[in-house]
Amino acid sequence: MRKRIAIINRDKCHPHECGNYLCAKLCPVNRTGVDCITPDKITTKAKIDEFLCTGCGICPKRCPFGAIEILNLPDTLNKFPLHRYGDNMFELYSLPAPLFGQVTGIVGRNGLGKSTAFKILSNHFKPNLGNWQNPPDFKEILAYFKGTETQKFLQKLNLNQIQVSYKPQQIDAIPKQFSGTARELLTKIDKQNQLTKIADQLQLTNFLDNEIKTISGGELQRIALAATALKEANLFLFDEPSSYLDIKQRVNMSKFIRNLTQPEIATIVVEHDLIILDYITDLVNIMYGHEGAFGIVSGVKNSREGINAYLEGYLKEENVRFRDHHIKFDKSNDPKKTMKFPLLTWKNLSKQLGNFHLSTSEGTLHKNEIVGILGENGIGKTSFIKLLAGLIKPDFGELDIQVKVAYKPQYLESNSDLLVSEFLQRTIERYEAQLIKPLDLEKLFTQKLSELSGGQLQRVSIAYCLSQDAQLFLLDEPSAYLDVEQRLLISKIIKNIAFERDLTIMVVDHDLMFLDYISDKLIVFTGAPAQNGLLRGPFKMEEGMNLFLQELDITLRRDITSHRPRINKPASVKDREQRAENKWYYS
Ligand code: SF4
Ligand code: SF4
Question: Which of 154, 213, 533, 577 could lock 527 by a disulfide, CB 3.0 to 4.6 Å apart?
């Protein structure tokens, strides 16, 4: 059995620019006359024999393009992979098992093979058991899963007894593939006359007759959810259903997915918003491994215990530690937080933007303070941020800004050919330890901004914004496109930066756990989306959360083990108790 795997990034491997297979020249195994690293006959890129490699670590360090990774596999992983794409490429070790009558969640970082798992579950391709040159027959695949729920599932899949409906992660592709109105798109799929009911449940009616190309990200996500639910299926796969949705829509989406699941239907959800994942699912699988190299799916656990195990980084049943630290949600008592110096104030601001009107009461921001901003989409959050950033001027009211403002917008786009290292030059010079290293940005230095994925561009934009010479920082949806672990990491970085540099940071976000953890105070927007918005606060956390949760009609409690916030099941004992005490939020 192999002890380690070697991953070669073929795009980064340039054998004739590194000194003609530098890695092979330096490899101690090759130097004894044994072919550990050789040129691949077809691609001409370097190829590493994982059985011969001793894991000395020389080639990953010396490859000038960072094309090699050598990774030890966990000792407990005593089996062949379920699927591998090719020599020195990503491998997946197990699958989540769809369970009928249940909503099963998958929690874990990106790049661990959830798309591969979904493709196998939806019969897109059959797993090759690590033998891509000579793929196994179906009997061998079944033997791999002998005695498990997955074996039964694959048998049904093979007999065409499973119909799969899949909502992909990337919904931006929909307007490129379809022209016409949302109604026309959904009517084509609606074989059982369910569109009116589903449009009502997902609140699509207002934009159902709009052209797909003109609708917003949040609307497109709900169209994709409707399209998935309208298909006749007994396995529903939802990949990141909360992206682009505000908190109200996320709660509504959760109820919608739960209602879809019947005794003869199985549902699997991948989600990085942990409050929402916890609320939607009955059970979870944890995905762990190494990004882009290998992925392992844990056994199924009940949602509460599974999410707590994920935060702890330790799987008791499997006896596997997959992270060297425990993620905790305790808020530290920072003594400097009591020394409040005002930074800026506003009073009775008013701004008309087309048909939308924004107004505020009176408010003050202080130094060394992180203020979370909560509210529905289209209710004026971004407009308020633009007022503070000086991008638009108020029609009436007083706005006293004597400070420099740095702003990270919600929508990130870059057609620039600038390299990440050029764009982040100032950040590299001044904040290498605080931003570059923790955000793992070195790996991106040689890429152009236009080549970055959504999550990579988000990390680069946050680092760029936080390295500006300013006193007030406005971060609009910093958790978007980030996986669960990156969200938790970013929240720690933002807190540390605010503390070390005595900064004021305002954060608009729809991930309630992220905002709960990061914020010292809250601003709450109320009103009617696209018509009017009223800014209230800043409030102390409990007061702001109580106001917001009451509007949402949900109560939050704290998990006794991890202290993470959890949404109470409607009409549960806790829910009724908290409503009776008017305590919508437990701090
Ligand atoms: Fe050269 Fe790196 Fe490719 Fe090896 S992996 S051939 S050192 S570019
Ligand atoms: Fe050779 Fe493995 Fe060492 Fe790389 S890590 S130089 S492949 S022995």
Answer: 533
